Every structure is written in C-alpha cells, then in structure tokens.
C-alpha cells in the first residue's frame, strides 16, 4: 500500500478508505491533510512542569492500552528531560517506557520533542503547572494525512467533571477534535 501511495497510483478515495481502515485497526486519531498548528503556552517554564502527571483523558493511542497511566518528568544534568511513562495492563502487569524530551527552539519552550524510539512533537498548549496540562502531538504523513494525539493531564488522578469540560473546551478552541477523547481509568491505582 505504501509503495502505491508513494507512486500516487491509487485514487485518492481508495487511499482514504485504506488509511481509514488502518486507523480504525490501530485506534488512532486520523485526519486528512496536514497537522494544525495550535497556539502553545506562552512563557512556558519547563522546570515548573517537572514531576508526575496523571492522564485524565486522551485521544486514542495504539501505544496506550492500560489504566492508571502516568508520566513523570525530571531534569537531566545535560538540560534534557527524562520522561518515564507507565500504565497498568489488564493482566495486572506494569508496562513502562523511558525516553527523553528536549526543547528544540529556546524561543518556543512549550514545543518539545519527545523521543522513545524516534522524536515526536509534544506541544504544551496550556498548563497552570500545579493542577492541569493540555498536550497536543501531531505528525504528518506524505502531506496526505496526519495522526494526532491529545492529553488532558492532571497532578491528581481525579478532576471534577466541570473542570474537565472546561479543559475540553480549551482543546476544542485550539482546533483539536475532542469527539474521540476517551477517559482513562484512574481508580484502584496503587502508587
């Protein structure tokens, strides 16, 4: 399929149907066209962002299948950020992965690149550092479509429904399609 797309031999409708089928199978948030470029947090302070964040809601992500999802960020001596993600799988085992993040352009510190296997965008759209963070990530493919991710994160495992609705509104105002947001189970999670 990729060879045909690269050679542009397939009708655009066929490409769309094939990509939509692949998206559905992988549980990703797929869209035609290139990534949007939402505004990010002004005067972002990466040091204040350090610590543990709990996933409250997210756009579907094939690489996340568990509950009790959390990410812990800590500064490394070289100025980069250690990223440690973990989740509780249905079989009761903990799945974790460690990576690094870095600010590529000091004039835009809220736009980071997170690397577990390869670099991926990590845009902090909004945060107050002490209770919530809205994060967006998007990657273009062949300038034909993009796959995006969005997360509502919190410093606690629970946020009020009213507050979550306000955060959804902020994501939507940033151009994120919130219809596919799913709630992450954060109950019965042990530290």
UniProtKB/TrEMBL annotation:
Keyword Glycoprotein among UniProt keywords: yes
Top-level taxon in the UniProt lineage: Eukaryota
One Pfam match: Lipocalin_2
Signal peptide: 1-27
Alphabetic keyword roster: Disulfide bond, Glycoprotein, Lipid-binding, Pyrrolidone carboxylic acid, Secreted, Signal, Transport
PROSITE patterns per record: LIPOCALIN
GO biological process, one term: response to reactive oxygen species
UniProt subcellular location: Secreted
Predominant localisation class: secreted
Keyword Oxidoreductase appears in the UniProt entry: no
Lipocalin/cytosolic fatty-acid binding domain span: 45-186
GO molecular function, one term: lipid binding
GO CC terms in record: cytoplasm; extracellular region
Family indicated by similarity: Belongs to the calycin superfamily. Lipocalin family.
Annotated protein name in UniProt: Apolipoprotein D
Gene source species: Sphaeramia orbicularis (orbiculate cardinalfish)
Gene name per UniProt: apod
